Structure prediction request, 406 residues.
Amino acid sequence: MTDEQLASAARGPYPKGIARRQEILDRAIEVFARRGSKRTSLRAIAEEVGVTHAALKHYFGSLDELLVEVYRASESGGARPRHPEGATPVEVMRDAATRNREVPGLVQLYSTLVASALEEEHPAAREFATERFARQRETLAERVRRNQAAGRIRPDVDPVAVAALAIAASDGLQTQWLLDPDAPQEAALALLDELLAPPADPS
Amino acid sequence: MTDEQLASAARGPYPKGIARRQEILDRAIEVFARRGSKRTSLRAIAEEVGVTHAALKHYFGSLDELLVEVYRASESGGARPRHPEGATPVEVMRDAATRNREVPGLVQLYSTLVASALEEEHPAAREFATERFARQRETLAERVRRNQAAGRIRPDVDPVAVAALAIAASDGLQTQWLLDPDAPQEAALALLDELLAPPADPS
DNA sequence: GTCTATACGTCGATAGAC
DNA sequence: GTCTATCGACGTATAGAC
Prediction:
């Protein structure tokens, strides 16, 4: 089976199909953003988008795959802040968290995807989450190294451990904050940032 | 409506009913422990427990409530390590994480409950998660204060922020580790512990 | 290729018999 | 207190219209 045939089976490689798929995805994203955390079934999305649920299946293969695509698009859709080279990993996560707060239901969607990823019968969600965590750890670890070289993060900490910690903290604090807006999300992230800074040097 | 009537509607207040409920719950816990992260529907659980799904509903009200009860019991069921008064909050979370690893499916169950808690139509899960986070933050913050008084944690950090951070880190690192056993769970928690320790004092 | 119509099996929930 | 019967909704699968 060629790559083209594979792609065809899953989503249609031809201009018309690709465009249609994107069109449906755009509508779906809009529906999610408007709905907030409300219930989302394949059939409900299909109805709001204006097609049958079988059409969604045709383009996306499964509900999980559609949800992954919607999350990917929603996440990268907002205003991208372009962090300066030297921004702290925690600062990056904090900006992401702030942006997430603007999009209703996005954190819920993420949480659902991660929970599904932990169960065997959701391969699409699992692949998404595993890949995303791995890539995030890599990217952030590299940023830690840059910060260490610039003297902005203590040199005696393992970059990968810092990355994993920052991701975990960001994810966990967002859900705590969503359940209880009094939970100290910003304060806790700021705290982590300070803890990672090198000991004060009264040069 | 009296408390007794309320309890009756939900779970049966009379000795026989209570005993039966506990009996069913015990079987359900055993089923979960044996099954690992496998699929869990009200009907599947009922079949393995040896009753109909209607009976489960009678005693637990909803699938969510049953899952919450199973998680509560599984979590507190294992060997309780009784931490020394002076144990660090991170040490406490690390022990909990280690224990969780021994019970297949427990972290998945927790993750499912938290994800459900973020959606409006799961009040039982939401109440469970909100309460649990709040209580955990309180308990851990108190522990932070004790550690600060004893000079084991730097005095200049906010106890509640530390507690929220430790919980988030523990939760997030467990899911990262589950998706990728190479993810630095222990290392990241150890790192957080070190960061919270007071600056070395060469007395 | 794109999409609809239709059907299958399972789900959580509910009503009423016993 | 526990069952059977039934409900509407779900994700998925497939045949075939165009």
